[in-house]
Amino acid sequence: MRWPWQRGARSTDCPRPCQLPSAEPDVPFVASFTALWRPVARHRVNLPEQVRSDLRSAASAVTAELPPDDLLGAEDTLNAALGVPGSRRAPHYRLLSVKFSLRLSPSSQEVLAARRADVARIRRLEFLKTALYERPDLLVLDHLERTSELPEEEVLAELQRLSRSIKSCGAWWQPLLEVWESLGAGFGDVEIRHKAMEALLQLSAEALRAATAPPGRASPDGRVG
Predict the structure, then answer these.
(1) Is the pLDDT of residue 219 over 60?
(2) Distance between CA 120 and CA 114 in Å, rounded?
(3) Same structural domain for residues 14 and 101?
(4) Is the pTM higher than 0.85?
(5) Are residues 15 and 91 in the same domain?
């Protein structure tokens, strides 16, 4: 309803699509909109430009928190935030309604698809890493599953050695190297640092031989007879 003293409503379109930030860096939304507004000031030039500038600023604050994966969801959220009559208070006009449309450019779609593929690949590698540490024989089974014929004995032996190496590196050598690095960093003198590392390595080797020796062959001090 329009009162006799009110000025007529005006419609402003986005002359060309503009970019709005998304929650994903370097993947902006491409937006266009149509706004219906009514001027309230008699002397104000370039009022349509002011309306467009205000709407772009308000929309940027909303879309910066929205992921670009769900365009329809982002569009609904934006229109719900800005499309309510009277939601925008301006000294020279009153916003009656606004409708935004969002899309992604082809380059942004490629960037987003590549990042999502990288995330999925990292998750798969992390899963495989955990599985291989717990069951290193899965490495051999994975090779057998992806090939149509059984590997030669030499290849099978290499795969078995590799699976055992992966497990031992996570259970034994990685913690040892971390302690070794921490121990070396605690000494300022290079010669003392080397001696401390050699002592740690010798004790670790003796403990390993004692742990892997057949029952009854390890001496009380940890040395294998």
Answers:
(1) no
(2) 10
(3) yes
(4) no
(5) yes
